[in-house]
């Protein structure tokens, strides 16, 4: 059972994380994350289940455009247009996490977890999941919540959905 964040998260979410990690372990797979607006929250959850630590290969917290480019190889041109919060960048982040790790499955998340600059759309988030040697999948969500905590929690739910789908 996740320990560090348990008091702050719904029990059902803890149970989903644990079940996901056990399934990843049974299949002898490794996960990676590439996170922007969640700031490493997903990686933290995926490393918080006793006995399943070997399922998580690594996490990239790439909050800035420079970090997305330097750590994940996201092309600077994509970061300018269509921009960091886009399908193209979410896909490039997930594929970069696969390319720069030993993971079998990577999940990326980039979006606006709260008020941002003049062009920000609070609650708009793009997700991508990549598998080594397979297709990359994308989801775009516009959450009703526009506070950081609410958006981040919804992001974790979508991320778990996408990771579970990759295991099916």
Overview of the structural elements:
- Helices cover 42% and strands 19% of the residues.
- The protein has 168 residues and is of the alpha/beta class.
- A 5-stranded mixed sheet has the order 2-1-3-4-5, with helices on both faces.
- Helix 2 links the parallel strand 1 and strand 2.
- The longest helix has 20 residues.
- The chain is globular and about 45 Å long.
Blueprint of the fold:
Blueprint: H1 11-26, E1 31-35, H2 41-46, E2 56-61, H3 65-72, H4 76-83, H5 87-99, E3 105-111, E4 124-131, E5 137-142, H6 148-167
Parallel strand pairs: 1-2, 1-3
Antiparallel strand pairs: 3-4, 4-5
Helix pairs in contact: 1-6
Q: What is this structure, in a nutshell?
A:
The protein is α/β, with parallel strands linked by helices and 168 residues long. The protein contains 6 helices and 5 strands; from the N terminus they run H-E-H-E-H-H-H-E-E-E-H.
Number of strands: 5
The SSE string, one letter per element, is: HEHEHHHEEEH
Number of structural units classed as domains: 1
Question: Any guess at the CATH architecture?
Answer: Alpha-Beta Complex
Report the CATH superfamily. Answer: CinA-like
Say what the CATH topology is: Maf protein
Q: How are the strands of the largest sheet arranged?
A: 2-1-3-4-5
**Proportion of strand residues:** 15-25%
Category by helix and strand content: alpha/beta
If you compute it from the alpha carbons, what radius of gyration comes out, rounded to the nearest whole angstrom? 15 Å
Q: Residue share in helices? A: 40-55%
Dominant shape: globular
CATH class: Alpha Beta
């Amino acid at each position: 059972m996740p320990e560090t964040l348990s008091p702050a998260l719904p029990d059902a979410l803890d149970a989903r994380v644990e079940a996901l990690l056990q399934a990843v372990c049974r299949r002898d797979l490794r996960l990676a994350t590439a996170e922007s607006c969640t700031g490493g929250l997903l990686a933290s959850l995926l490393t918080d289940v006793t006995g399943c630590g070997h399922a998580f290969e690594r996490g990239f917290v790439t909050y800035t455009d420079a970090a997305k480019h330097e750590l994940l190889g996201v092309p600077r041109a994509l970061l300018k247009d269509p921009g960091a919060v886009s399908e193209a960048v979410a896909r490039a982040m997930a594929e970069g996490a696969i390319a720069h790790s030993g993971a079998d499955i990577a999940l990326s998340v980039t979006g606006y977890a709260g008020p941002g600059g003049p062009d920000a759309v609070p609650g708009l988030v793009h997700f991508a999941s990549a598998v080594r040697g397979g297709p990359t999948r994308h989801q775009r969500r516009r959450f009703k919540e526009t506070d950081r905590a609410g958006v981040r929690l919804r992001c974790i739910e979508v991320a778990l959905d996408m990771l579970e789908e990759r295991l099916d």
